[in-house]
Amino acid sequence: MDLEQAMRTTFAAREFSADPLPDATLVEILDAARFAPSGGNRQGWRVIVVRDKATREALAKLTEPAAKRYVAQQQNGENPWNTIDPPRVDAATIERTPPLMRLIEPVLKAPVVLVICVDLKVVASTDQDLDRVGVISGASIYPFAWNILLAARARGFGGTITTLAVAQEPELQTLLGLPAHVAVATVMPLGRPVKPLTKLRRKPVSEFAMRERWGGAPLG
Questions:
Q1: Could you tell me which residues come within 8 angstroms of residue 207 by beta carbon, excluding any fewer than 6 positions away?
Q2: 8 A C-beta contact, residue 155 and residue 28
Q3: Which of 38, 63, 139, 220 is the most exposed place for a label (fewest CB within 10 A)?
Q4: Burial 91-123, CB ≥16 within 10 A → b, else e
């Protein structure tokens, strides 16, 4: 599989077969992923490899509150969890909204779950003083997470970058013994997909690339 084919066919896998993902293969995947770029080449990623049933059940439970809000906002015609528009659904509505099981079950059913963390002591967060949510720290961790998915794809495995459990990060830190300066970037279920997808739907370049400034002529 060449690079462009991998980029066009690496999908968010949420349903997995019963095939195991052996430690030896996981080491190969992480060995390839570690060549991702990071700020100052500080490589602040840390990975907790979770196979224990009780820990996975705890991770699934921590996913539920954010999953409920996600569904409640989506049903209300909102873009869930965006930082610009406050939720128009109240806490009681969110609490009684059942979470979609497809947002939770992968953590329970995948053969392995990776909790991918970043050491904030080595990340240059140049947007830390801006009056908005920080995004720059992600440049030093999400290329690594994406490399994991590309390396897994090359070996017939797959997974997805999930972030709902991170809304409960203090509980995650307690569960996994994480230091206070280590942030959770994603909880990634990983395994062999039941049904690999080969055609992904994405917007054309002309819908997101513009010339010279915001609102400029579309590229392409």
A1: 218
A2: yes
A3: 220
A4: eebbeebebeeebbbbbebbbbbbbbbbbeeeb
| Cα dihedral 12→18→23→24 (10° resolution) | -90
Among 9, 173, 184, 13, residue whose Cα is nearest residue 109: 13
**∠ CA 106-108-110, rounded to 5°:** 60
pLDDT at 132: 96
Of 192, 193, 194, which is closest to residue 20 (Cα–Cα)?
A: 192
For the entire predicted model, the pTM comes to 0.95
Residue 217 lies in a domain: no
Q: How many helices (H) and strands (E) does the chain have?
A: 7, 4
CATH number at residue 96: 3.40.109.10
Cite the beta strand spans of the chain per DSSP E.
Answer: 45-50, 112-119, 158-159, 182-191
Query: Is the pLDDT at 96 greater than 90, yes or no?
Result: yes
